[in-house]
Every structure is written in structure tokens, then in C-alpha cells.
Design a protein that fits this description.
The chain is mainly alpha-helical. It has a domain at 474-650: Methane Monooxygenase Hydroxylase, Chain G, domain 1. It has 22 helices and no strands. The termini are far apart. It comes from Balaenoptera physalus (Fin whale). Pfam families: RINT1_TIP1. This is RAD50-interacting protein 1.
Amino acid sequence: MLLAGDFGKAPATRCCSENGDQRKNIKEKSDINIAALVGNERVCEEQTCILKVLTVSSEIPKRIQSALKNAEESKQFLNHFLEQESHLFSSINSHLLTAQPWIEDLGAMINQIEEIERHLAYLKWISQIEELSDNIQQYLMTNNVLEAASTLVSMAELDIKLQESSCTHLLGFMRATVKFWHKILKDKLTRQEIYPYFMPEWYLAQVLMWIGNHTQFLDEKIQPILDKVGSSVNARLEFSRGLMMLVLEKLAADIPCLLYDDSLFCHLVDEVLLFERELHSVHGYPSTFANCMHILSEETCFQRWLTVERKFALQKMDSMLSSEAAWISQYKDITDVDEMKVPDCAETFMTLLLVITDRYKNLPTASRKLQFLELQKDLVDDFRIRLTQVMKEETRASLGFRYCAILNAVNYISTVLADWADNVFFLQLQQAALEVFAENNTLSKLQLGQLASMESSVFDDMINLLERLKHDMLTRQVDHVFREVKDAAKLYKKERWLSLPSQSEQAVMSLSSSACPLLLALRDRLLQLEQQLCFSLFKIFWQMLVEKLDIYIYQEIILANHFNEGGAAQLHFDMTRNLFPLFSHYCKRPENYFKHVKEACIVLNLNTGSALLLRDVLQSTSGQPPATAALNEVGIYKLAQQDVEILLNLRTNWPNTGK
């Protein structure tokens, strides 16, 4: 047997003949060994594969088992869902059966709603057409042709949008409306082309030019001839009167064409008034001759003039009150000019009234002038109502800038109307009104007497209403400040007047600390309103306030307390050295406006001897002249004897007489 280490080696002692067989055997053995090794490797590989197969085979049942388990669970879930689906399907069917009547009713209601919506849409179209139509009418009434045409364009655009609609009646209504307003606008524009805007002013200017150009010729060439033959005819005036007849004829023809066009008619009136003014002032045309004012005084033309005048005046009033500068004075930076602190709207309004006066003052008859006067009075009343409305919006801020500006406006208008009442022109109208009222018996004998004696004026009704409004507004301001002062005086009312040190016990008298809030509140409000109100209004304001303060301090502070010598002296110092001087800027002797307080301080501060003597006199001569003389002697003129006796009883510094 060969050792492992000898494997493949030939023995050294073998003969040569054995070498071939030996080699053969060795080769065979080697092949066997190699085959055995290969076989062993294959066996190993097969064993590994088998091991793997066995391993996989052992895991497959587990996976199959898990998959089966999952399938079972899925089946259970599916069965559960199927049961739920069956139950839900049954519920839905039941609900549908129950809701079927509702569905049918709801469907009917939806159909009705859709029908109503169609009707509503139809009505909206009609409403929109009518609204545009109304707008066109309003624009034409105010002669705003441009806006009327623009609105008609909008209406035509709606007509185009409706072309695809099946609503034939709506289409017909829309088309008829467009055609109607188109014709109206076309006719209006045609009339304006026939009567150009500048034709009322061309021939009037031409007549004035003819008169001016021929004046020298008539005076130097024609007049001497007339004078030579002894004629009293004035060549220049006759020439002017002849031309005036042409003007009157032309106006009589033109006015009916312009009567209902506000802008053209107003322009015509303006030009006629300017023509008349220059004719009389420059060319000396007598007012007794026929003139254009007679044409304007004819009933139809005159009533239209009044209407247009009112319309444009109201428009200007709207504009002036809505202006940003309505309540600001034009002269606020010029102290001398701005004494009345007139807001811009009030000054503009009175200028408007003055212009109206200038326009109608040359009318030939007093009755026509009186109609214009009534128009002016209506405008004043309308403006007063507008001021009242704005004032009510500012009531909570009765000390504010706008409220004070409204008050200044009311005062200014009232003052100007009172001045106008003394004007010769309005005095003549007053006399004319007196004659008219007497004929118509529209006034009582007392009122007629007042008008005849000039005790009243044509503006009295308006002035009285404005004065009442002014008084109400001032009263509201006074009450506001008075409430603030009373609130500030609460501590002063509770001052310990019985226990204050006497004047001899103090080095220097000083203001009571509890009086400081009262005096500061009073001072601040006086300064504020002095700046915001005109002088005359502020004077009324502070005098009304002082009257209330005088009574308040007298009744609520003095009569409600008792005073020792020090308390009486302190009260006197507070009043005479601090309260009264607050008003020294507005009058020379402010203490005369605090008569109750001033005289009460006199009584409380009488020396003991004088007080005893006065008390004895009052008790012994009650209601007799000697009592009045005694009161006057110590400076008491306002307070009654009983009031003085009460004040004497408020003194606590009486000597102990043993009684």
C-alpha cells in the first residue's frame, strides 16, 4: 500500500520491464483518484443544493400558511363589506322611496323659481330701460344735452345686447324708446342750431355801437337843424328810441324760442340787463322811454325769469355749502377786515342776493319788484333751514369750529338784512308793499301801522327767525360752558368757609386752591370762543354766561354756607381779585355784571359795627325808605332787604352781647 507521500513515485529497485506497466497502473490510479476527487466535489455540491432545497422546502409551508391566513381575513372583511353594502343599499332605496314626493315637489318649486327668475330678469331689463329714460329726461330738463346724448348711447348699447333675445315685446319696447329719445335730442339740437348762443348778444351790441357811433353826428349836424326850426325833439334820444323799438321787436320774436332752454334764456336775460345798464348810464337813455325791461316784465317771460333765477340760486347755494372752504373766512388773516369772522358760504350767499337785487331793481312796476323780493326772502329762509340742518349735525360739538362758523353766518346774514331794511330801495318797496297789503286786506291794522311808521321792515320775518336761531345756538354754547364750570366748582362749593384764618393771620392773601379748576375752565373757554366768535356774538355770550355764574355762585356757594371773618375775606379776594378780572378784557367794570356776588361780598365783609348798625336799621324800618337808604349807603342796590338779612345771618363773627 502506498503512502500518501509516495503517491506517483516509482521504486528504485524495479526493473526496466516493469516500468511501462507500472506507469500504466500509476496513470490509471491517478485517473481514479482524480475521478474520485471530482466525484467528491459533485457530492458536496449536491449536498449543498439538497440542503438549500430542504431549507426552502421548510419555509414554503409557512408562507403558504400565512398567505392562506391573509386570504381568510380578506374574505372575512369582504363579507363584512358586502353585508354593509347590502344594508346601505336597502337604506338608500328606502330613503329614495320616502323622498320621492319631496323630489317631485322640489322639482316643481325649482321650475317656479326659474320662471320667477325669468320674469324678474325681464322686469330688471324694463327697469333699466326706464331708469335710462328718466335720466335722459332729467338731463334735458336741466339742458345738459351732452349727458343726455351719452345716456342715449348707453341705451342703444343695451338694444344691441338684446338682439339675440327671444323676448319680442321687450325688443320692441327698447327699440321704440331709443327712437323716441333720439328724435327728442335731434329736434333739440336742431333748434339750438337755428338759434345760436351768441345771437341775443350780437344785435344788442350792434345797437349800442350804432348809438355810440352816431352820437357826434346827431349832436353836431342834426340837432342844430332841429333847434333852428324850433323843434323840441332831441335827435340823439329819438334815434336811440327808434333803435330800441327794433330791439324790442327782435326780443319779442326771440324770447318764445328760448323760453324753455334755461341756459339760453338766462344768457338772454344777462345780456339784456347789461344792455339796459349801458344804455342808461353811458348814453343817457331815459327810464320813462320804452325799454327791454318791459319785455322781461310780461307775464310769461317774467314767470320764467323768476323760475330760472330761483333754480340757479339754489344750485349756487348747494355749491357754496358743499365747498371745502364753506366755513372758512376769506379774511381770517386780516384782523381789521375779519371783525365779523364771516364764513365764505355766508358772504357768497349775501353777494348772490345783492346781485339779484341789482338785476331786478330797474323793473318798471313795483308789483314785479315785490315778487322778486319774495323770491329773495324765500332764498333767505331756505338758507336758514340749511344752516339749521348743518348746525344740528354739530350739536354735540357746540364749541367746535364749524358750530361757531354757522353762528357767525347766522349773525352776519341777520345784520346785513337789518342794514338793507334802511336802504332807500327797500324802503320804497316797503311803501309799495303797504299799498298792496292795504288793497288786499292781508295784514291787520297794527301790522299796517308798523309798516307805515317804519317800525318794521320787509325783512322783519326773516330777521326774527335768524335772531331766534342765533339765540338758541348761543344758549346751547352758554349751557355747555356753564356745565363745565359747575363741574369744576364742586370742590369750591365744599370749601370750609367757617374755619378759614382771618386776613390778619395771613401774611399775604392768595387764591383758594379749590377755585383754580373753576377759573382755569372759565379762562380757557373764554379765550377759545373769543377767537372763534365775532365780537358782537362773543359779547352776548360772555354776558349770558356771567348772568348764570352770578346767580349760581350767589345761590349755590354763598347762600349754602356760613362764613367766619376769614371765610368772608377769602371769598371777597377770590371774587374781586381773580374771578372779576377774567372779564376785565371785555368791559371796564366787570363787577357790575356780578351784582349778586359783589353785593353779597360787601354784606359779608362789613366790619362788625357797620353790620350791627345795618341789621338794626333793617329790623326797625322793614320796607321803609330809610332801609333802602341804609342799603344804598353801603353799596347795596341789587339785593332786596330780605336777601341782605339772610346774608347777615350767614355771618358767624358776631360779638357776644349777652343776648
